[in-house]
């Protein structure tokens, strides 16, 4: 860094010297001002006047980043009319005038007082003018000029990113493009080589290279292997000044990762795998696993397993576990140790996806030998058949042999076997089995019509190893015998018209037999021999398991006989045949001329002679309406009855009836005892009446009732007490006696108003006058005497 800074300072000084020399050589041609014109004569003596410009301008230049002790001289302004006597004053205005750029108003020298940075501002536009120093009168029109900031190499190159990440497939050819990195330089690209960049690689050789002009990184070595090294760190440098000495530089880091290709075949780590499996294993059970290693990753490392040879190809299979990349050997069929004790398999592992570019690296597969030993197991008994089917006739006697099952011990010990029936499959206990030989017999008679098949299960266990058992299904078919006579297929109701013609068919019947088809149809229909010449009906067998019933005569009458019972004999086709007699009910009905049924009731004639159906409906409707009217009338009458006790708002005296009974105080634990609630006068032996409902009805005496307009409350109460004492029917029978009785021990004292005052002067009810019209009647009754006199 010190060497670069020294070199930079030297170049800066050299530039300043060159620039000063250039100004010295250019100044005479740049500003030779003259405010007077030259006169030239032509060839013919004509005077020609040529007007000269007062200013001669060129662009001024100043080097950026100048750090000298004195202000740097930018240039000098001079007017032709300036005679040097100091009467002309130079004025500078515009961008940065007076701040960055100052002018000597006498000499016209322009200096830069501050350090300039071209990257911040490349040029400044200024305006110069010469004026009279005393009067400030412009002597020349203002003129505009430009000061350009001359660039120096003061900015190093910078990359767009500090770190780059790139991928390239492994084993790529030399020169394969990986990534392009780009740097930029803030210096002026049009001036010198300050912004001319050159790229080079500092770290990452010999694997990668970079193009000096473009920054493209390429592979430099062939057959780079991801499995050997997956990630590389490369450092790229960008240097200005065309890469020459003294130029500034910047670097960036590039992380390059080799992506995987399928360039490695799978390999088994060993040549032989040893496995074992019990002969008791069920198909689908896992025997063992093998794994071939493939250093590739992703889909390039996927391996599929298969069995390509061996004596166990039919007994075993292999599947691929793609999560662990293992081959899973599974049992395909049941094994038998006594038959074969070992198997050998040849297993192949092959890549699923193969890249054609690397097919020459193949073959992308490997093989291994798998040896499987079968282990002996204590096996349960084995029945000779997977299932049994037996037949037995229904109604067979108890103890009839149905069939025999047989099982054996497959082990070398060949243990003895015991048999039993699973009672969950024979809940009714129809069968029993001999535990020694496996013979199945019936215990009770079987009925095919109740259950045609019996499905039971038979267990076989070793005598000395009860935990080893086998189970086999046994289906027992109950063979049918002809033990059910045929019957009517349905409950028939036959109807014959009174006007039916002779030999007219009016019903077809069929039969049903619970026995099997061999002992059922075909059915034969006939009449019993004793009525084969029935005068009313005849039977015709249709020979298709049906029969037709016909009318033998004409002129049936419901009045004479409305129901006929016809016995019919039905025989089946079993050996020996069975028959039954079934009765057909035939009802005589009235029909119209076309034979359509009208009525089958004998009472229909009686109805025609009396009232019609419409008349009966009308009569019933009238009766219902009358009943409704009576009910409404009674209801209205009940609602209009006067209540027994009239509570008129104006008749305050009647309100005495609404007082509730009052019990004793807190010490009264027998508040509902009738003896306690009796009048205390009864203790002295005086009992005015008995509290029982009398046998006669009491009629109150009219003379005892006070006049309606009377306001004497004492008379009113005395009259009520006398009526109650003489009227044992007035309910409640005992409530009037408790008004003068108060319980003892009450903390609150008496709540009754009957004995709260002895004279009218004890209480003052004048405040009732202020309670409004609703309490006017009470105020009249209980107000002061003076108030009462005033009202009267």
UniProtKB/TrEMBL annotation:
Protein keywords: Calcium, Cell adhesion, Cell membrane, Cleavage on pair of basic residues, Glycoprotein, Membrane, Metal-binding, Repeat, Signal, Transmembrane, Transmembrane helix
Source domain of life: Eukaryota
Intracellular or extracellular location(s): Cell membrane
A GO cellular component annotation in the UniProt record: Schaffer collateral - CA1 synapse
CDD domains registered for this protein in UniProt: Cadherin_repeat
InterPro entries, per the entry: Cadherin (IPR039808), Cadherin-like_dom (IPR002126), Cadherin-like_sf (IPR015919), Cadherin_CS (IPR020894), Cadherin_Y-type_LIR (IPR000233), Catenin-bd_sf (IPR027397)
Domain Cadherin: 79-159, 160-268, 269-383, 384-488, 488-605
Gene Ontology terms: biological process: adherens junction organization; calcium-dependent cell-cell adhesion via plasma membrane cell adhesion molecules; cell migration; cell-cell adhesion mediated by cadherin; cell-cell junction assembly; corticospinal tract morphogenesis; focal adhesion assembly; homophilic cell adhesion via plasma membrane adhesion molecules
Transmembrane portions of the chain: 615-636
Membrane topology: Single-pass type I membrane protein
Keyword Manganese on entry: no
Gene3D superfamilies, per database record: Cadherins, TCF3-CBD (Catenin binding domain)
MF GO annotations: beta-catenin binding; cadherin binding; calcium ion binding
Job description of the protein: Cadherins are calcium-dependent cell adhesion proteins.
Protein name per UniProt: Cadherin 11
UniProt organism field: Serinus canaria
């Amino acid at each position: 860094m010190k060497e670069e800074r020294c070199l930079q300072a030297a170049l800066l000084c050299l530039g300043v010297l060159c620039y000063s020399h250039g100004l010295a050589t250019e100044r005479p041609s740049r500003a030779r001002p003259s405010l007077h014109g030259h006169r030239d004569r032509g060839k013919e003596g004509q005077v020609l006047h040529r007007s000269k410009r007062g200013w001669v301008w060129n662009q001024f230049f100043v080097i950026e980043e100048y750090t000298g002790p004195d202000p740097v001289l930018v240039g000098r302004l001079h007017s032709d009319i300036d005679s040097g006597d100091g009467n002309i004053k130079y004025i500078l205005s515009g961008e940065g005038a007076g701040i960055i750029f100052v002018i000597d108003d006498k000499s016209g020298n322009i200096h830069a007082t501050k350090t300039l940075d071209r990257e911040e501002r490349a040029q400044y536009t200024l305006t110069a003018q010469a004026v009279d120093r005393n009067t400030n009168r412009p002597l020349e029109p203002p003129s505009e000029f430009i000061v350009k900031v001359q660039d120096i190499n003061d900015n190093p190159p910078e990359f767009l990113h500090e770190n780059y990440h790139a991928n390239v497939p492994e084993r790529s050819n030399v020169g394969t493009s990986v990534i392009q990195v780009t740097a930029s330089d803030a210096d002026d690209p049009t001036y010198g080589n300050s912004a001319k960049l050159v790229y080079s690689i500092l770290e990452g050789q010999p694997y990668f290279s970079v193009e000096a002009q473009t920054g493209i990184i390429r592979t430099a070595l062939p057959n780079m292997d991801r499995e050997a090294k997956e990630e590389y760190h490369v450092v790229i440098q960008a240097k200005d000044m065309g890469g020459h000495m003294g130029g500034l530089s910047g670097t960036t880091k590039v992380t390059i990762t080799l992506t995987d290709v399928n360039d490695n075949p799978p390999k088994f780590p060993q040549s032989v795998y040893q496995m074992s499996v019990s002969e008791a294993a069920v198909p689908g059970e896992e025997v063992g696993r093998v794994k071939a290693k493939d250093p590739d990753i992703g889909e390039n490392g996927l391996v599929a397993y298969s069995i390509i040879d061996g004596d166990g190809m039919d007994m075993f299979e292999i599947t691929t576990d793609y999560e662990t990349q293992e081959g899973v050997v599974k049992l395909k069929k049941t094994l038998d140790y006594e038959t074969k004790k070992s198997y050998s398999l040849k297993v192949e592992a092959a890549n699923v996806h193969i890249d054609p570019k690397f097919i020459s690296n193949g073959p992308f597969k490997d093989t291994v030998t798998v040896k499987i030993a079968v282990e002996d197991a204590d096996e349960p008994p084995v029945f000779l058949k997977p299932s049994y089917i037996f037949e037995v006739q229904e109604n067979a006697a108890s103890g009839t042999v149905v069939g025999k099952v047989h099982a054996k011990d497959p082990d070398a010990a060949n243990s003895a076997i015991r048999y039993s029936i699973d009672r969950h499959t024979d809940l009714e206990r129809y069968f029993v089995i001999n535990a020694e030989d496996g013979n199945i017999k019936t215990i009770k008679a079987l009925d095919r019509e109740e259950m045609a098949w019996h499905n039971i299960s038979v267990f076989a266990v070793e005598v000395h190893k009860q935990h080893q058992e086998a189970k086999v299904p046994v289906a027992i078919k109950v063979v049918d015998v002809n033990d059910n006579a045929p019957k009517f297929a349905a409950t028939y109701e036959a109807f014959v018209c009174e006007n039916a013609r002779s030999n007219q068919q009016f019903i077809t019947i069929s039969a049903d037999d619970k026995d099997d088809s061999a002992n059922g149809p075909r059915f034969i229909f006939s009449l019993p021999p004793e009525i084969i010449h029935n005068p009313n009906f005849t039977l015709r067998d249709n020979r298709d398991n049906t029969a037709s019933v016909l009318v033998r005569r004409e002129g049936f009458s419901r009045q004479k006989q409305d129901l006929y019972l016809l016995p019919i004999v039905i025989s089946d086709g079993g050996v020996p045949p069975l028959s039954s007699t079934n009765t057909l009910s035939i009802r005589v009905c009235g029909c119209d001329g076309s034979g359509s049924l009208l009525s089958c009731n004998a009472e229909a004639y009686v109805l025609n002679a009396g009232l019609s159906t419409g008349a009966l409906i009308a009569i019933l409707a009238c009766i219902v309406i009358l009943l409704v009217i009576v009910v409404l009338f009674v209801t209205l009458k009940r609602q209009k009855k006067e209540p027994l006790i009239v509570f008129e708002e104006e008749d305050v005296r009647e309100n005495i009836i609404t007082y509730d009974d009052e019990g004793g105080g807190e010490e009264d634990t027998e508040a509902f005892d009738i003896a306690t609630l009796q009048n205390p006068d009864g203790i002295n032996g005086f009992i005015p009446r008995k509290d029982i409902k009398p046998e006669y009805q009491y009629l109150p005496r009219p003379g005892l009732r006070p006049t309606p307009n009377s306001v004497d409350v004492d008379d009113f109460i005395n009259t009520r007490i006398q009526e109650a004492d003489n009227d044992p029917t007035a309910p409640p029978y005992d409530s009037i006696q408790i008004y003068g009785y108060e319980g003892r021990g009450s903390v609150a004292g008496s709540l009754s108003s009957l004995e709260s005052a002895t004279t009218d002067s004890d209480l003052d009810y004048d405040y009732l006058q202020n309670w409004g019209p609703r309490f006017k009647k009470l105020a009249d009754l209980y107000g002061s005497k003076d108030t009462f006199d005033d009202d009267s």
